[in-house]
Amino acid sequence: VSIAAKVASDYTLNGHTNWFLPSIDELELMYNNLKTKDLGEFHGGSYSSSSEYNSNVTKAWFENFSNGIRGPDARYLPSRVRAIRNF
Prior knowledge:
21% helix, alpha+beta, 3-stranded antiparallel sheet, globular
């Protein structure tokens, strides 16, 4: 489990504990439907996803919330985490 995934799964807000690290597709939906409309108080920079890059456990997909570009990077690099939950 990556540090980002652990941060997301350990998150608690308003009594809810069922948070998880979003996939790259879920991050892209958040960028397109929230960030581009100035909703959700997102910051610029890269957000970690739970999506592995080409079966390489040391890399994951990231979504850049400054410009909407996504790409792979090393999991150990600092990045933002945006936990989500199903409702």
